[in-house]
Amino acid sequence: MSTERLIYLPLGGAGEIGMNAYVYGYGKPGRERLILVDLGVTFPDMDTTPGVNLIMADISWLIERKDQLDAIYITHGHEDHIGAVGHLYADLDTPIYARAFTANLARRKLDDLGLSGDVVETVSPWPEVQEHGPFKVSVAPMSHSIPESGALVIDTPAGRVVHTGDFKLDPNPLVGEPFDPVMWAEIAKDGVQALVCDSTNVFSPKPGRSESELPGEITKMIAGASGMVAATTFASNVARVRTLAEAGQRAGRSVVLLGRAMLRMVEASTETGVLTDFPPVVSVEDAQNMPRDNVMLITTGSQGERRAATAQLARGKYRGIEMKEGDTFLFSSKTIPGNEKEVSRIINQFSERGVEVVDDSSGLYHVSGHANGPDLEQFHTLIKPKIVVPMHGEHRHLRRHAKLAEAKGIASVIAVNGMMLDLGGDAPNVVEYVETGRKYLDGSIKIGAMDGIIRDRIRIALNGLVVITVILDEDDEPLGEPWCDVRGLPEVGESKAALIELMEEDLNQFLMRAGAKTLRDDDKLEENLRRVARQTAMSEIGKKPEVTVIVSRMR
Amino acid sequence: MSTERLIYLPLGGAGEIGMNAYVYGYGKPGRERLILVDLGVTFPDMDTTPGVNLIMADISWLIERKDQLDAIYITHGHEDHIGAVGHLYADLDTPIYARAFTANLARRKLDDLGLSGDVVETVSPWPEVQEHGPFKVSVAPMSHSIPESGALVIDTPAGRVVHTGDFKLDPNPLVGEPFDPVMWAEIAKDGVQALVCDSTNVFSPKPGRSESELPGEITKMIAGASGMVAATTFASNVARVRTLAEAGQRAGRSVVLLGRAMLRMVEASTETGVLTDFPPVVSVEDAQNMPRDNVMLITTGSQGERRAATAQLARGKYRGIEMKEGDTFLFSSKTIPGNEKEVSRIINQFSERGVEVVDDSSGLYHVSGHANGPDLEQFHTLIKPKIVVPMHGEHRHLRRHAKLAEAKGIASVIAVNGMMLDLGGDAPNVVEYVETGRKYLDGSIKIGAMDGIIRDRIRIALNGLVVITVILDEDDEPLGEPWCDVRGLPEVGESKAALIELMEEDLNQFLMRAGAKTLRDDDKLEENLRRVARQTAMSEIGKKPEVTVIVSRMR
Q1: Considering only CB atoms, which chain A residues are within 8 Å of B457?
Q2: What gap in Å lies between CA A419 and CA A431, rounded to an integer?
Q3: Distance between CA atoms of A175 and A277, rounded to whole angstroms?
Q4: pLDDT tier for residue B31 given thresholds of 50, 70 and 90
Q5: A508 CB contacts (<8 Å, ≥6 apart)?
Q6: What would the DSSP string read from start to end of B121-162?
Q7: How far is A67 from chain B (nearest CA, A)?
Q8: Partner residue opposite A443 with nearest CB, options B351, B444, B541
Q9: H or E element: which one contains B217?
Q10: pTM score, two decimals?
């Protein structure tokens, strides 16, 4: 009965923006041959993931089926698409395919973790094709805010699937291939079964703008600036970095690249031939001896990252360089939602130093890398797919994108992480719900989002902690009095006496009155001591802290 | 030698947006008579103030001089101006003056904390004047996004000061007085020594828009919606709440107010006669039995506050009401920077329920309550002050505002919290730096921002915690082995053995080898145990946790 089917299963990236990981499969149900598209990360925040280093999709489903997995494709080098390659490769142990620049970055990710980059194969773009079991896969160039972004053209016995990756319709992205409507018409001409499509900017109502609109304005701005000039952007936006460097050069300034990612991206793009004409740069040491008017810094940290070059310059001297009254700092970037406070802090720190900050609010110094609402409609029309599956968006983005498609008579669906679709019919069909989730890289260990470890940290951060120590002798009688230690709580409460002493008193009272049954029973004892301490805290400081009880028995 | 002087001292609100608290003084240096303008709060966040309830200015300077303090004026009822009245009143014990609506809210703040509202005196607006020592103070109506916002006209022997409070130039704010250029020309005509002025929207390049632009669009939107309609806005924007209610009424819907603040604000504005014509409302119980098409909810929680009505509706049923596919939810509000993630979460939750969300991105359903850049210039021109002191802004706002003034030949200065100015001369003169800071309301206790309590919570949230317990006998020899308890850390590390056991083993090894000198010395012992545990954790889980060491001695 079980005929072969074409499945799509997002494990990350659908219903969120970040940690992209999409599975395609073809074959009999449960025995499909699989390919994985992208293996990205999401960044933690203090609200939900304090202390976490990186967030990745929980790909347990795929790991259990890794013998069915024939290939991993990485569409482009942004962290939300490539960032987990190093951390999850060992669990999948399957060759990685990408275009040269992306492959170069993937190998660096593996190198960083002491793994061999040999598992990464560089592929040539469309029309070159790789065969993996029932799949023929080709990487079709797409314009985006990083070089060599690629859409995947996946041919299967059930028809052609186009997986866009991240894209915009840029006729002149300055670095890398422009959006090519002729190529896409060619790809679409025999029919596309399903278009799995970037939804990031679906709410932007105007057509997107080209990277090529910026150099004129940026050049003018920098030519008009006195003192030292610095600019930040996403290091991976190599075209922008070059635009900034060229603008500096034209203004008679020597260009300095500050920050590891900036150096790494320029290096990777030069190594792979993506970038052939980057202006000469000088070292930060040389820049220190130059007149301020002759220096242009290009820095990492456009999102306010605390350790990046931008934040360090805002706080004070960084590698011998200090920005001062009359200098100019340009954010050639937008602030990603959630980073507003960090970026504001930096702008205010620059303001305190008298540095003029220019941001993207004028619209002159930044353009987005994603297709806007009208661009998506244009692409739908060009590809004429039977089905549109919105991806790379929060639920609201997927919903709006599905509506756009349906308004044009194209079948669509809101498929979030874990929803397995059969894409073989006239309309997408949900065939299974797969358990998905998140894994956190915490220090060097991967922990599950539901393990309770992070919840415990958050609780202590909100409520503070009391540690109660009680020692019982061989007869289960208290040996001395209980004592308390607190973390993250005020020392003195309403009654102006030390909180610790009041808690110790109340705990001691309790122990004196406690029956043998309670004293013998660790659980009961702990529960009661916790309750007493929390009551005292509540009446003294208006908070119920977390409590750790340590019962030592001298047996 | 010491002649009398006119001083201005921001204790909060200058160099930040929030917790406004400005002191004016007149008299001989150090012996000035003082008045305080506003006593607001700032809201905590997980990044910097986990677990904190409210943030207030540290007004120790003023408390030490409370015998010099003659009056507290509250310009309007927004939390960043009035929110700390209840919490700090007892420390100042000085009469509070405000217009009727604001006074009503101030009394409620005091009542909430069991204090008497009798200390709040209702004042009539300009030209009525109150005398406080050397000051004559009048409250001049200003249009803002809350009824009865007032600027202060403060006459002193050194000239007239205008303290704007929050304002916009709205010719038709719908509720409360419009901006009155004739009154302001009258106030300005004999010369204004200093204009202390709202800076919030200095970066907005276009003239501000009137509240009266909204009812048409909001009415049209709600008339066109099917299913249940809900809308949220700031409860204190009574004009907006009425606009929403009237739009619902015109669309044949019964209006339900959801959320304590919403009820409280409508109540306060009705009690004080600010609002005389609010449409009839129905109870949430009655609404449950009405057809969905006939119901309009107006809810608190436009900023995504987790416990407010909006967030609860987004999560599921709230007081018997549930929003569904085909319903519409309107954010008639902007998202305050820092709240983007919370608001996004809610929009996505509504999206999952099939609820259509309309936000302010079209510009049709919200206008700001603050004067934009061109409005500020217009007001400077109207008032023609000798000095402009920007307030109510982050450093970058103050800086831009000072530049605006200076560009027109008006003396200005960037005065942040703690900078005491002498405003009596032709230009502002910094005469002293006063120590300022923040106090946190944490549970029921006020703690200092620098007390280390919150820093401790943040450290545990980032790094996790290990509690080490060691018992030593009468001879300072270990009694049994040390043991560990962890909070917020993975159970198992690199070596796949239990982290706790590995730490206990390493700690025991250390204790076995430790000399008598170390074992006798609590500090040394703790320091060493901490180091050992952190080393083990680092090699096992790649993190150095916080450590609490508890040494019990059987002496």
Answers
A1: 460-462, 464, 487-488
A2: 8
A3: 10
A4: very high
A5: A481, A482
A6: EE--BTT--EEETTEEEEEEEEB-SSTTEEEEEEEETTEEEE
A7: 25
A8: B541
A9: helix B214-223
A10: 0.95
Q: Give B350's contacts in chain A (Cβ within 8 Å).
A: 396
The tokens for A96 are 């990685």
Q: CA B533, CA A112: separation in Å to the nearest integer?
A: 27
Q: Rounded CA gap, B479 and B205, in Å?
A: 72
From B532's Cα to the closest Cα of chain A, the distance in A is 18
Check: CB of residue B149 under 8 Å from CB of residue B371. Answer: no
Which of helix, strand or coil describes residue B488?
coil
How many residues in chain B?
A: 555
- Give Cα separations from A304 to A232, A336, A339, A348 (angstroms): 10, 10, 7, 12
Structure confidence at residue A554 (pLDDT) = 84
pLDDT for residue B554: 84
Best CA proximity match to B38, nearest among B15, B24, B21, B62: B21
Under 8 Å CB pairs connecting chains A and B tally to: 192
Phi, psi of A173 (to 5 degrees): -80, 5
Which residue in A17, A334, A395, A414 has the most chain B C-beta atoms within 10 A of its own C-beta, making it the best mutation to test that interface?
A395
CA B283/CA B553 separation, integer angstroms = 64
Contact A542 B445 (CB under 8 A): yes
pLDDT in tens, A480-523: 899 999 999 999 999 999 999 999 999 999 999 999 999 999 99
Residues linked to residue B412 through DSSP beta bridges, in sequence order: B388
What's the token pair of residue B69? 């303090």
Averaged pLDDT of chain A = 96
> CA A117, A122, A125 angle in degrees (round to 5)?
160
Instruction: Give pLDDT tens digits for B204-247.
Output: 999 999 999 999 999 999 999 999 999 999 999 999 999 999 99
Residue B555: the pLDDT is 74
- CA dist., res. A376 & res. A207, Å (int): 9
**Residue A127 preceded by cis peptide, ω within 30:** yes
Contact (Cβ atoms closer than 8 angstroms) between residue B191 and residue B160: yes
For residue A284, the distance in angstroms to the closest alpha carbon of chain B comes to 28
Which H or E run includes A139? strand A135-142
Which residues lie below 8 Å from residue B505, measured CB to CB, with a gap of 6+? Answer: none
Res. B349 pLDDT band, cuts 50 70 90: very high
Q: Quick one: how many helices (H) and strands (E) in chain A?
A: 17, 29
Do residues B11 and B415 touch, judged by C-beta distance below 8 A?
no
- CA–CA distance, A522 with A406 (Å, rounded to integer): 62
**Tokens (6 digits) for B141:** 């109506």
**What residue has token string 């090894």?**
B509
For residue A228, the Cα-to-chain-centroid distance in whole angstroms is 32
Q: In this complex, do A447 and B490 lie within 8 Å of one another by their Cβ atoms?
A: yes
Domains of chain B: 5-206+368-448 (3.60.15.10), 215-358 (3.40.50.10710), 464-553 (3.10.20.580)
Residue B252 sits at φ, ψ, to 5 deg, of 75, 25
Residue of B nearest to A499 (CA): B445
Query: Bridge partners of B419?
Result: B433
Instruction: Please give the Cα distance from B111 to B121 (Å, whole number).
Output: 15
Handedness of CA A493, A498, A504, A510 (dihedral sign): negative
Tokens of B218: 């909001």
Closest CA to B180 of B368, B377, B370, B379: B379
End-to-end CA distance of chain B: 66
What is residue B1's predicted lDDT score, i.e. its pLDDT?
A: 45
Average pLDDT over residues B150-172: 98
The verdict on whether omega for the bond into residue B127 sits within 30 degrees of 0, i.e. cis, is yes
Give this complex's ipTM.
0.94
Comparing CB atoms, the residue among A51, A471, A554 nearest residue B462 is A51
Q: Is A512 exposed, middle or buried (0-12, 13-18, 19+ CB in 10 A)?
A: exposed
